[in-house]
Write a structure and sequence with these properties.
By secondary structure, the chain is of the alpha/beta class. The chain is built from ten helices and 13 strands. A nine-stranded mixed barrel has the order 3-4-13-12-11-10-9-6-5. Strands 1-2 form a two-stranded antiparallel sheet. A two-stranded antiparallel sheet has the order 7-8. Helix 8 links the parallel strand 11 and strand 12. Helix 2 runs parallel beside helix 4, helix 5 packs parallel to helix 6 and helix 9 packs parallel to helix 10.
């Protein structure tokens, strides 16, 4: 079954695998699919022991402030598939920053560069329209202080209404595209930890406002928080549960991404206790439908995301995670990963670590439903994880070597 058949569109094809009941209906005639999910466990279900002794790197918290304006609002996109936990299989994306250093430049990026850039990602210019290799989901992180400059207050009319919501509209205008709204704040308001050194009421209110604005847009996905770190896991899980409950009163079926501790890293998903603790988070009806674990994982030494050189394919990291997810009938989304474009980086040439990682994720897309390739930098092609396609006056655009070699559907 192709997603274009559901939506009655002729643009992008997405292949759906066997998954539970799904109703789709915002871009065309509504149809209901009733396939069956079969979870196959090839190794015994593990007993998880919390033994994490990971040393976290020092972090200086810096929200996306006035000096950066909108260049810190990112977009991510991904390949074929569909992200609903009860719908289908694989989503894959890439992160980009789509505005310049000054807010008055945003319209230019939105109206031309962003439009053509997103269309390139979706259509993948060098391939036929029917190709299943186009990308279909865009991640849109924003600093909380930009959304609501006053803690617990309303949306800022300039930054939210004029700019950020316009980016979401641009994303939603793409046929079949999914749009992840991500609060990029590391579980903090300035230096206070949500629900621990400050009340979580303003954070819950923030998501109530977002859910209210996009309740009628099932293609909007709620990424609750980017990379929480150095906090109490049990208290954080309690906050996430309150947020889920509040969102579900407004948007009962939207996909929600649940991030754990230690920067949501996959290598400590089990050992930190994140898996078992966040597994207890439920919808008001007691189900766990459309509640996905949000993971990050890098390929550089130490899993820091600070070096372009890839030293691992992370298969040893994802293997136990994949097994746990299957055993517990859960799914996860890898919302940040990246590597360098030079042959000497060993990401796509030589050891081809990134290509091997992505191939492993593709082969386990029943539980790792998608990924995001991190490429922050406001079109900054000097960034170590640059994934910005070349956008000369003449189109089609040209993908970076890493994206062209490893990041598209095989």
């Amino acid at each position: 079954l192709k997603l274009e058949d559901i939506y009655a569109k002729e643009s992008i094809s997405f292949i759906l695998t066997t998954l539970p009941t799904l109703t789709i209906g915002t871009l065309g005639p509504t149809k209901t699919i009733k396939p069956t999910v079969t979870f196959v466990t090839t190794t015994p279900c593990p007993t998880v022991t919390v033994t994490s002794t990971k040393t976290l790197p020092p972090v200086t918290y810096n929200y996306f402030g006035p000096d950066h304006h909108f260049d810190q609002v990112l977009l991510q996109h991904h390949h074929p598939g569909h992200i609903h936990d009860d719908d289908d299989d694989v989503d894959k994306d890439v992160n980009y920053l789509y505005a310049d250093h000054h807010a008055d430049h945003v319209d230019h990026y939105q109206n031309f560069n962003l439009h053509h850039h997103l269309n390139h990602d979706v259509d993948h210019d060098a391939l036929p329209k029917s190709s299943a290799r186009g990308m279909n989901t865009f991640r849109l992180p924003i600093g909380w202080q930009y959304a609501t400059p006053t803690l617990g207050g309303s949306f800022d009319p300039t930054m939210w209404s004029n700019y950020y919501s316009s980016l979401v509209k641009c994303c939603l205008a793409l046929p079949g595209a999914y749009c992840v709204i991500d609060i990029h704040n590391w579980a903090r308001w300035n230096n206070d930890i949500i629900g621990q050194t400050m009340s979580d009421t303003p954070y819950i209110r923030l998501w109530q406002m977002i859910a209210s604005q996009y309740a009628s847009e099932p293609r909007v996905i709620f990424g609750l928080m980017n990379e929480p770190y150095k906090l109490n896991l049990s208290a954080w899980a309690a906050t996430l549960q309150r947020v889920v409950t509040a969102i579900r009163a407004i948007a009962p079926r939207h996909v929600i991404l649940l991030p754990g501790v230690e920067f949501a890293h996959a290598d400590t998903f089990l050992s930190s206790g994140t898996a078992t603790t966040l597994d207890a988070i439920i919808n008001p009806d007691g189900s766990k439908d459309n509640l996905l674990f949000d993971l990050h994982q890098w390929l550089d030494r130490g899993n820091l995301g600070t070096n372009s050189v890839c030293v691992t394919d992370n298969i040893a990291v994802f293997g136990p995670v994949v097994n746990w997810l299957r055993c517990n009938k859960r799914k996860a989304f890898l919302s940040a990963t990246g590597g360098g474009n030079a042959a000497s980086d060993s990401c796509m040439a030589g050891s081809t670590f990134m290509c091997k990682q992505m191939s492993y994720l593709f082969s386990n897309s029943d539980v790792i439903v998608g990924y995001t390739g991190w490429a922050a930098g406001s079109y900054d092609t000097s960034y170590i994880y640059d994934e910005t396609p070349a956008w000369p006056a003449n189109i089609p655009y040209a993908d970076t070597p890493l994206v062209a070699t490893c990041m598209y559907w095989p």
